[in-house]
Write a structure and sequence with these properties.
The complex is a heterodimer of chains A (353) and B (815). Chain A has 353 residues and is of the alpha/beta class. Chain A is built from 17 helices and 9 strands. In chain A, helix 3 runs antiparallel to helix 4 and helix 12 (222-239) packs across helix 14. In chain A, 44% of the residues are buried. Chain B contains 43 helices and 10 strands. Chain B is 60% helix and 7% strand. The interface between A and B is medium-sized, with 34 and 36 residues. Chain A: Pfam families: AAA_5.
Amino acid sequence: MTALRPHAEDQYAEELALLADADDRPRPPGWRLSPQAVVTYLLGDGAKITPKYVGPRRLMEVAVSTLVTDRALLLLGVPGTAKTWVSEHLAAAISGDSTLLVQGTAGTAEEAIRYGWNYARLLAEGPSEAALVASPIMRAMQTGTIARLEELTRVPSDVQDALITILSEKTLPVPELNTEVQAQRGFNLIATANDRDRGVNELSSALRRRFNTVVLPVPASADDEVEIVARRVAQLGKSLDLPEVPAALDEIRRVVTVFRELRSGLTEDGRTKLKSPTGTLSTAEAISVITNGMALAAHFGDGRLHPADVAAGIVGAVVKDPVSDGVVWREYLETVVRERSDWRDFYRAARDA
Amino acid sequence: MPERLYGIRHHGPGSARAVVQELERQPPDVLLIEGPPEADALVRWVADAGLEPPVALLGYASDDPRRAAFWPFAVFSPEWQAIRWAVERGVPVRFFDLPFAYRLAGDAPVARLAPDTPDTPDTPDTPDTPDTPVAPAGPVAQPLPSPGAPAESLDGPDADEADAESLGPSDADVGAGQPGGHDADPADADQGEAEPARAVRPVDPIGELAAAAGYDDPERWWEDVVEHRGMPAFEAIAEAMTAIREASPEDPDDLVREAYMRSVLREVRKTYEDIAVVCGAWHVPALARKVAVKDDNALLKGRRKAKVDFTWVPWTYGRLASWSGYGAGVSSPGWYHHLFTSADEVVPRWLVDAAGVLRAEGVPTSSAHIIEAARLAEALATLRGRPLAGLAEVTEAAESVMCDGEPLRVELITRKLVVGERLGGVPDDMPSVPLAKDLAAQQRSARLKPEALERALDLDLRKETDLKRSRLLHRLRTIGVPWGEPAATRRGTGTFREEWRLRWQPEFAVSLVEGSMYGTTVAAAATAKVVRAADKAETLADVTALVETCLLADLAEAYPRVLASLDTRAALDADVNHLMAAIPALARTLRYGDVRRTDVAGLATVTTSLLGRVCAALPSAVGSLSDEAAKMLRDRIDGVHSAVGLLEDDDLRERWLSTLASLAGRADLHGLLAGRLTRLLLDAGRLDGAEVRRRMRLPLTVGTAPAHAAAWVEGFLSGGGLLLVHDDALLALLDDWLADIAADAFDDVLPLLRRTFGAFETGERRAIGERVAGPRAGDPGATAGGLGFDPGRADLVLPTLRALLGHDVTAGEAL
């Protein structure tokens, strides 16, 4: 296998098998695991099951319960809060298949959500089952599995509305054949949407009320976030075959601290309020700043991660809007970074960057 | 069994319902309630329709109202329900806990209390002023609740109750009670020794039973386990408590209280046959136990009594809730209220109410939402292995289905529903509150009598009494009692004078009662109120005003909070103009302190950071300004510049000047600012004469628009012509520059100069001219000529003068 990134159900097949063996609780129809086991799969059990999501347990409980009640689940959050990650693992744990995926874009057409036609066949044989090209969502309905829809709010409103019948009637009419596809038990939909895109293609209230919303927050504590970043950086480094650079925990902590402080508009000691920049400064961005810094250090530096390697990355992540973010960043540098005696190197590097 | 013991959970709706049912079933002759016996006389008020829960019994030392404790009652408090039941049926009610007077006097060594520990610690951490009062009493108590409260995840509130139980009614009742209970003095007194013991004692025994059964909401547990199984609830609870108490360490404080309760019980037995006792479940085993009279007496012996007063005060659910600053409150009084008042379909009814709250705010919420939320709540409960959905499940379901995950809407539900905004009321004829008494005492000490007629008062703040009066009046204004209004007129330049117009109005009494929610003394109430205002303030200017209020009213304790708030507002305020506007006043205060001898520590830090922000933000604020904006910014920069001068901090000054220097060179700067900055830098010695001359020439060259040049000159010279008269160096600089201008360019420059100089006073212009001419001419005799005096034209007035004076006038004489 040389896939750059294996599917969750393949990568964690062992853990899933382990959970399925030990799982003696009732499983909802069409589910491979009981709801409790799904929550355990996501959050880890501290032993054999690794945590996939680090965050409040109640969120995962609400998400899983939502899928049990056959309501669709909408995962909302700023970019980089593991929405897609969670949806993939939910699908893998519940249906054992995370590949029934529709990527929402501004160009997503109704065919991607309902069905399309194999036109050669359509012309040759006329409308028939064989000429029908099922969308991932239609296939999920037929097989009673979980379908995923990424970036729901990027999808044009008229296309979004195609979901309403699917979600409320749990059926997909095919008028051309005078038939319909009824969802089998176990079918459900997990959609993700980006908080920052709000208003681009706002969900109609009819559609909205067919979803239960779970907002994934940014990590609650600095230690959590450092752990997430460190773990992902190590995984990424391995899969991208970056030269080994000792991932300096100090630098990770610093990047995480800068991101957290600017994001929350408050220093970690709670003493100073700050302005927040327009960017989201997600954990995912912190991960890429560190990975990028490590690549710099490995290929162009002395093999050790220095403040200068991450400074440019941080400035790039923070200053998205040159005018307003510039002020925010300068103010942060001068009022917060400057005062921290052990951050001298970083202050200089950031000023030069 | 001579008496029936009803062990309840303080503020537990389940207990409340059960107690009333039991009383109905088997009406007693007399009802004993865990609570301060001094308040017995106040029980009759419960029958008054004006006394509306939530209310609290407020007990305070007569000589020092700051030492006070509250025993709050909500409609779902078992004690309240029991009292109501008894009062309606004419059954006598007695509180039988250890008298508050004992606790207050007991050990409370005055020295310890004196610092008013409560006040101090509380004020800062309690957002809600009201709590402050509690705090005093409570501070002590506080330690107790806190260890317990964290233990129960959800039940923080319950914990209180629990405490309450443990503590006895008084404490128990109020989350605050705690404070009340142990409180006041025990707190101080035993804090030291008692604490270790307390830390181990279960704070909410019923909550622990519930937790052991896997419930995070003791009320739901009570409902499932106790209520749904028929009636022997109290026996079961008593048994469970006995078991728990056997295994738990005893709190010495409890032992004393229980000894007292037993002795009251013995006394009551002599008069009545059928006795009902409502107390925290924790105390039931102790009351049922046989203890020798002399043992109890030994425990109670030698206790001193302080003089205390009691009254009812209105309470709110917000203050019952822990998040408003109670260490030990009920976190979800609104939910308990709901549990107590809704007969069936608890979850759907709650969700319907939540939908109502959202609809009232314009969030469309349909019945389908409610249905789906109810389903999700049930699924969650199942996933978590609970028989019924509790507050946690309901809240999460509402968040996910009805609020679209928006935290603001969830908070709305929490505020309006989970906590609730219910405010209690007390009858108008209720005896007065401690705040009013404190005011009376202060009026005496400041020798100011309330008078209905308006009169003027002139204060000299250098005198002790006048200073006291001024502080009192300022504080009263803060708490909404504008007895004195500062008279704006005729205010001299001295900072030690203050004029007031005094007039006492009857409705101030009402304001005082309201104010008593914030604190039991004028100072505490004002502090609490200012702190709250600081937390709520929206703009920087609001907070700056509060800083001044703090200084005027000498609210030292509110100061750190207001400063913190100032810092926050400063960080969030994107308009550098606001930041700059705030600096001069702060700097003045810092530099001169004031006659009031305020402690200004802390202000320096804030001012420094404010200046840091200004330095960082100024560069982006000076570009592309209109004439008006430039003028405003110039004034601000001037203000900050002189403030920086006052601060006498070289580092700060350096930073400020560097910022100005980097700005002054910018090409997109408005002329007015460019000129002004050049001037400021010149004055500060950052630019030498040659450089300034070079810069002066630039705006006046052909490449520059005339308006820009005019503004530049105006900016450079603003500050009045008088400076030019006295500043030789500046004048020389200007003079040299003028002389340097090529003859053909001079005609172009002249109007610009005229524009600036035209704004000076005539006298100033003349003086400047004299200065320039004087040394130049070098000949005193030629002064007139130097001034450009034209004898020919001057002679024209001579005929008129001649006519006026009636005699001949020569040119020489006129001069």
